[in-house]
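Protein translocase subunit SecE, Oxynema aestuarii AP17. Tokens?
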Amino acid sequence: MAKKDEAQMQASADGFNPVKFLEETKEELTKVVWPSRQQVVSESAAVILMVILSASLIYFLDRFFGWAATQVFG
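Tokens:
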């Protein structure tokens, strides 16, 4: 735990180094496993479908409770 704190103190004392930041960013991006085009399309379609279904459910519940309130309260 103490070594981690010392490393953070050293990093903050050195300041921000944009070149080192870009090198580390490039290194991390090489580790990313990017999805295939087919996977992106299918998962995007699933998300859009779920949003449409959820919005429709909320809409119909709102219309039903509005109708019920009108029936009860005139």
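The first helix runs from residue 2 to 14.
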